[in-house]
């Protein structure tokens, strides 16, 4: 009977760990789901009577019929969705924003131009809902994501300018009558070079040229900022402040997150001259610069095995998962266990209803301040006496993994 019960518990723990692992890589499923939208777009275009490749062989604007005009942007929309989904694999925030915007455009465009593609429309709506629900999971900023954003912006402006120049071709001197000439003029105007060999003479052509110049300056400036901004910012900070403090990450404590408990734990360990490495997200790093100024800091996702390895988890005394999110704390413990680290694991439970879920990943110590505070408050309100024994008892109830002997010390 006991063996059967132990087997069921083992199966239950394994299933919970598997579920937590799937939850930790949910961004990969989201990225694949969004990527499938581009596949549906290409499948739709493939079934239309005009080949997309023929769009790029246009000689005159008169050759472009309605199907050409609807295929070209729809095809590029599929390309942009595929590019933006790459950033989703890296949990990039800017890729989430681009993907969400593109999915709105895709759904509206498909409903208007191809209303018979019911499956594509429904799939696009489901993609929008999924992206909205997991929006908080995409919080990273990276040069790769900025590069994707820059590439999409430049290609979009290039296509718009090229086909616009071809459309207003009669308003130029000499007239623009071929796609190659229109592409040449678009590049020349976007880059604000302006050789003067093609001049807008009509009002619509001049207004179009002004819009291309302004858009070109804006897109190039934004693209350069999104790609080079993070690199320049980090380099400038190192130049002004010098390199952040680093220590020999051996026999130290790793603290993940900056919750109230984490901040106080950092202060207490620092006052005792204990070596500490703090793992923080980019957002919280900016908000707590003063606190982290003299500490050994690793910036990144604390549930990521690579970040934990960089923080020296294999040689640490203990890893303290003290973030404000109980799910993140469970993932931190799970990542440490998967890395086969000998460090003692401590997990904070912010909401006492999640204590069993956090315990299912088998941390060495589980701390629930909420449960401890409520137990003490109930004793006071009930008129019970508060002595050292009752405090130890409350601690034992709220801190799983510590013995009475360890608390008494």
Blueprint of the fold:
Elements: H1 2-24, H2 26-46, H3 66-88, H4 93-113, H5 118-133, H6 143-167, E1 172-173, H7 179-190, E2 199-200, H8 203-241, E3 253-256, H9 260-271, E4 276-280, H10 282-287, H11 289-292, E5 296-299, H12 305-310, E6 318-321, H13 326-338, E7 344-348, H14 355-359, E8 365-367, H15 369-381, H16 388-398, E9 399-400, H17 404-408
Parallel strand pairs: 3-4, 3-6, 4-5, 6-7, 7-8
Antiparallel strand pairs: 1-2, 8-9
Strand line-up in the sheet with most strands? 5-4-3-6-7-8-9
Largest sheet: 7 strands, mixed
Return residue spans where pLDDT drops below 50 for at least 5 consecutive residues.
49-53, 58-66, 402-409
Tally of discrete structural domains: 2
The total strand number stands at 9
Structural class: alpha/beta
Beta content: 5-15%
Cα(first) to Cα(last) distance is 39 Å
The first-level CATH class of the largest domain is given as: Mainly Alpha
Q: How do the helices and strands follow one another from N- to C-terminus?
A: HHHHHHEHEHEHEHHEHEHEHEHHEH
Count, helices: 17
Helix fraction? 55-70%
Q: If classified by CATH, what would the architecture of the largest domain be? A: Orthogonal Bundle
Rounded to an integer in angstroms, the radius of gyration calculated over CA atoms is 29 Å
Which descriptor suits the 3D outline? elongated
Mean pLDDT: 77
CATH topology of the largest domain: Helix Hairpins
InterPro entries: K_chnl_dom (IPR013099), NAD(P)-bd_dom_sf (IPR036291), RCK_N (IPR003148), Trk_Ktr_HKT_K-transport (IPR050721)
Transmembrane segments: 20-48, 68-89, 94-111, 117-134, 143-164, 176-195, 207-229
Keywords: Ion channel, Ion transport, Membrane, Transmembrane, Transmembrane helix, Transport
Domain RCK N-terminal: 250-367
């Amino acid at each position: 009977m006991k063996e059967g019960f132990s087997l069921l518990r083992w199966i239950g723990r394994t299933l919970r760990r598997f579920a937590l692992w799937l939850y930790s890589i949910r961004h990969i499923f989201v990225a694949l789901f969004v990527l499938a939208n581009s596949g549906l777009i290409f499948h739709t275009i493939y079934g239309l009577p005009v080949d997309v490749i023929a769009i790029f062989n246009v000689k005159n604007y008169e050759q472009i019929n309605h199907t050409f005009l609807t295929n070209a942007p729809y095809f590029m929309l599929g390309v942009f969705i595929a590019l933006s989904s790459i950033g989703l694999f890296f949990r990039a925030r800017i890729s989430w924003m681009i993907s969400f915007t593109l999915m709105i455009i895709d759904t509206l465009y498909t409903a208007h131009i191809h209303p018979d593609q019911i499956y594509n429309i429904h799939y696009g709506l489901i993609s929008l809902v999924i992206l909205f629900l997991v929006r908080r999971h995409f919080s990273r900023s990276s040069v790769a994501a900025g590069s994707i954003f820059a590439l999409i912006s430049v290609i979009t402006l290039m296509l718009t300018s090229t086909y616009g120049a071809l459309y207003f071709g009669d308003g130029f001197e000499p007239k623009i009558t071929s796609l190659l000439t229109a592409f040449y003029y678009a590049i020349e105007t976007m880059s604000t070079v302006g050789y003067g060999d093609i001049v807008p003479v009509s009002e619509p052509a001049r207004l179009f040229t002004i819009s291309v110049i302004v858009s070109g300056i804006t897109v190039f400036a934004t693209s350069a900022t999104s790609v080079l901004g993070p690199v320049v910012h980090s380099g400038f900070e190192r130049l002004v402040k010098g390199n952040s403090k680093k220590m020999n990450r051996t026999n130290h404590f790793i603290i993940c997150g900056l919750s109230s408990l984490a901040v106080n734990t950092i202060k207490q360990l620092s006052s005792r001259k204990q070596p500490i490495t703090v793992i923080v997200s980019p957002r919280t790093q900016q908000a707590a610069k003063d606190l982290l100024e003299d500490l050994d800091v690793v910036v990144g996702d604390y549930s990521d095995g690579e970040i934990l390895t960089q923080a020296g988890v294999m040689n640490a005394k203990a890893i303290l998962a003290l973030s404000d999110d109980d799910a993140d704390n469970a993932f931190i413990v799970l990542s440490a266990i998967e890395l086969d680290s000998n460090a003692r694991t401590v997990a904070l439970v912010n909401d006492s209803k999640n204590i069993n879920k956090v315990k299912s990943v088998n941390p060495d110590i589980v701390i629930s301040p909420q449960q401890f505070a409520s137990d003490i408050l109930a004793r006071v309100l009930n008129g019970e006496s508060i002595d050292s024994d009752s405090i130890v008892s409350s601690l034992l109830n709220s801190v799983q993994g510590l013995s009475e002997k360890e608390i008494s010390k």
